[in-house]
């Protein structure tokens, strides 16, 4: 029996300690940015200061989750992270972590599904557990109102793009891709006209999904800085994108819209300027 007790105690000591949730030191802030709306909050002070930011382009099914810390080590880290909201959704994402020139901090960034935040209890806690670096847990008080403010910001942007912001409230079942969007754009789509000068960038494109599920009217809403990259993004998505159309509450197919960020990055290159 003493041996059994000792083994149990040793096993308990070997388990990683749970990450205590960080508590915010400021209010939620919504940044009406030129390219996307961003929701942010600061946790901790001085060297322990950590900033949680969530940036979503309107009509996009994913958002960028970003964590800024004072770790300025030059090491670039890539890996997988488990992301969950206690009492809400769960998921996994590929992250990238590097020191940024613009903010003077290390940024750890990963795309997450918007559905992760659909259910937000009053005591919600966001947990991010990367496989190759320490994780975080963030207390999210008043998160429901904060995400509603983020949605209001996105509605204002959508209106500027000429899209009715009430569209999403009239959709009973969103359009669903019939093929994987991950294969709609490939390295072969990189325009040969800009390869020689090493052009890179990120395009945000907006398109219409017709009642037949086909993509039409694709246009750039946030430019990459290279016209050929912007054109290539729309060409690939128009040619390969196919959907089951959105359904209204009457059960009939309806026109809807989506956006996507397309990052054009040459093999073997890395930029921490964002």
What does this structure look like?
The longest helix has 18 residues. With 274 residues, this protein is of the alpha+beta class. 18% of the residues lie in helices and 37% in strands. The N terminus is likely disordered. It has four helices and 17 strands. The termini are far apart. It has two domains: 140 residues; 99 residues, Fusion Protein Consisting Of Minor Coat Protein, Glycine Rich Linker, Tola, And A His Tag, Chain: A, Domain 2.
What topology does this entry show?
Elements: H1 2-14, E1 29-32, E2 37-43, E3 50-56, E4 62-69, E5 77-85, E6 90-99, E7 106-113, E8 125-130, E9 136-139, H2 143-160, E10 171-173, E11 176-177, H3 192-195, E12 201-209, E13 215-222, H4 227-240, E14 243-244, E15 246-248, E16 253-254, E17 256-264
Antiparallel strand pairs: 1-2, 2-3, 3-4, 4-7, 5-6, 5-8, 6-7, 8-9, 10-15, 11-14, 12-13, 12-17, 15-16
Number of strands: 17
Assembly state here? single chain
Count of structural domains: 2
Class inferred from helices and paired strands: alpha+beta
Question: What proportion strand?
Answer: 35-45%
Short descriptors:
274 residues; alpha+beta; Fusion Protein Consisting Of Minor Coat Protein, Glycine Rich Linker, Tola, And A His Tag, Chain: A, Domain 2; nine-stranded antiparallel beta sheet; 18% helix; globular; disordered N terminus
């Amino acid at each position: 029996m003493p041996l059994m007790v000792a083994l149990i105690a040793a096993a308990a000591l070997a388990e990683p300690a749970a990450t205590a949730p960080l508590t915010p030191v400021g209010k939620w802030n919504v940044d009406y940015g030129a390219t996307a709306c961003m929701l942010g909050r600061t946790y901790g002070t001085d060297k322990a200061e950590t900033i949680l930011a969530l940036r979503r382009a309107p009509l996009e099914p994913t958002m960028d989750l970003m964590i800024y810390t004072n770790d300025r080590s030059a090491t670039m880290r890539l890996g997988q992270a488990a992301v969950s909201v206690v009492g809400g959704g769960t998921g996994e994402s590929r992250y990238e972590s590097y020191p940024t020139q613009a903010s003077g901090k290390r940024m750890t960034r990963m795309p997450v599904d918007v559905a992760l935040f659909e259910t937000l209890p009053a005591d919600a806690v966001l947990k991010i557990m990367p496989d190759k670096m320490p994780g975080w847990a963030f207390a999210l008080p008043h998160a429901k109102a904060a995400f509603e403010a983020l949605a209001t910001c996105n509605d204002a942007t959508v209106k500027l793009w000429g899209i009715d912001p009430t569209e999403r409230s009239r959709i009973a079942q969103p359009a669903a891709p019939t093929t994987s969007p991950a294969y709609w754009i490939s390295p072969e789509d990189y325009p040969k006209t800009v390869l020689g000068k090493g052009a890179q960038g990120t395009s945000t494109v907006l398109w219409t999904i017709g009642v037949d599920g086909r993509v039409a009217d694709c246009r750039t809403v946030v430019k990459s800085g290279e016209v050929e990259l912007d054109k290539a993004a729309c060409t690939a998505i128009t040619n390969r994108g196919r959907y089951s159309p959105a359904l209204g509450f009457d059960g009939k197919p309806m026109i809807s819209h989506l956006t996507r960020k397309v990052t054009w990055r040459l093999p073997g290159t890395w930029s921490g300027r964002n």
